[in-house]
Amino acid sequence: MVAPLTEYRGFMDISVLRTFVAVVDEGSFAAAAGRMGISRSLCSKHVADLEADLGVRLLVRTTRKVTPTPTGLSYSRDLRDILARLDAATETAKATTSPAGALKIGSPIFYTLKVLQPHLLDFMERYRDIRLQVLLDDGTSDIVGEGFDAVIRIGNLSDSSLHARRIHSARILLVASPDYLARSGRPERPADLLRHDCLHYTNLPGNLTWPLRRGSRTIRQPVRPSFSSNNTELLHSMAVNGRGLALLPEFIVRDDVATGRLEVLMTEYTLPDLPVNLVYPSGKLLTGAMRSFLDFAAALRLPQ
Questions:
Q1: CA quadruple 114, 118, 121, 122: dihedral sign
Q2: Distance (Å, whole) CA 206 – CA 139
Q3: How many CB atoms lie within 10 A of CB 240?
């Protein structure tokens, strides 16, 4: 029999319990990881650690699905009730005070200018007692060491001691300028990329390959970059100035496509969306100011 939470001797991480409930609800680690905004491997580790701590098997894992054992099903039902009561108590406590204090947030340059900036005035108007500091940060900062409360990260996250909350996903487009296409021609199929100047984002997974999906088939097409960088602003500038093809988030190139500075290519192929997460230290106390920003970020929507 699983011991109730009140009898548990160790530290019970609420995020681990929420992850277990998500796995039961979704029936898979991948779907639960997406719901929780963490990697699949970290999701699996959370549940394995919970089973080890409790000394019981909670899930039956097969190659096709994950199902709870009778004990796991009963435990998940109890947890769901407990977590609902905890959430209700938290909301009641939050409602008694107005969020206040300093808040240091990091955000990528282009994302800040194109997505976040229009909403910041609303946040500051709603939470007048929060002293907000937003630093433009393209992913190189030490979140804990540099004192960030949270940072916005675009792309897949590696396992770490950090928590992540999925905000939304960013569509990726293959683009080039009209000048470049007039000189070099228009690619029609993946293999054509080998004869083009490609502007490569070095943080993209895969060894100098670009993922192109058509139907259920994904092709990891090798490319020969004429220029590489870990900064999307620099790649965007190169593309607009006719230096080659680039894979860039839609929110970065939307205005350029609308005005004709860039053209979208090979539209019959799709590219995997990039997750946009708010990442914050797991051991840091979630203040009222931080909770307010988490709720604010969760409501962000990409411009249409």
A1: negative
A2: 19
A3: 18
